[in-house]
Design goal:
8-stranded antiparallel barrel; 2 helices; about 180 residues; alpha+beta; signal; about 15% helix
Length: about 180
């Protein structure tokens, strides 16, 4: 059993590396970029009760840290955070896929904020869920700019859960954000 667990962990890491490689290179720092946040930016999500393959009302809590941020227009911006909790009336491992509208506010290390409004789409790539959100900064710092955020969450547990083979209480992903 321990050997199987080690194999699954190794497979998950390899799948995550493959998913990040498939997503392409990190955002280029082209002239005009307002801010780019790359790895090791991360997201931690918890599900209460843990997700199953059956839709259930679930409290979802997201903590996202934007690290290694570089801004040509606001050089003092080097990091940011987002934290939010919300009730999803029909959350399941399967409903993680697909898309929907998103609104979230980033608090930058300078104390300034940016509210981002966009559309999200998630797909399974190997043993990872890759969520891409695109849209516009609707208020605050960088208002009017476009953004792309990619969250890659390697998780065999989520893959198994979508097949009805277990539950998921939490997941951790890698985050890249580009505001132009």
């Amino acid at each position: 059993m321990k050997r199987m667990s080690r194999w699954i962990s190794t497979a998950a890491v390899l799948a995550a590396v493959a998913a990040v490689a498939a997503a392409g290179p990190a955002p280029a720092y082209a002239t005009g970029n307002l801010v780019a946040c790359t790895l090791p930016s991360s997201e931690s999500t918890t599900f209460d009760p843990p997700m199953t393959a059956t839709p259930t009302p679930t409290m979802v809590t997201v903590d996202r840290t934007y690290s290694s941020c570089v801004s040509l227009s606001q050089p003092a911006v080097v990091s940011g955070t987002y934290a939010g909790s919300f009730l999803r009336p029909t959350q399941s491992c399967v409903t993680l896929l697909g898309g929907g509208s998103r609104i979230f506010t980033i608090t930058w290390n300078t104390g300034q904020t940016s509210t981002l409004t966009g559309t999200s789409n998630s797909n399974i790539v190997g043993a990872a869920i890759v969520n891409v959100t695109t849209g516009t900064v609707t208020s605050g710092l960088f208002s009017g700019a476009s953004f792309t955020q990619t969250v890659t969450t390697p998780s065999l547990a989520i893959t198994f859960c979508t097949l009805g083979l277990g539950t998921v209480a939490s997941a951790t992903g890698l985050v890249e954000l580009l505001i132009v």
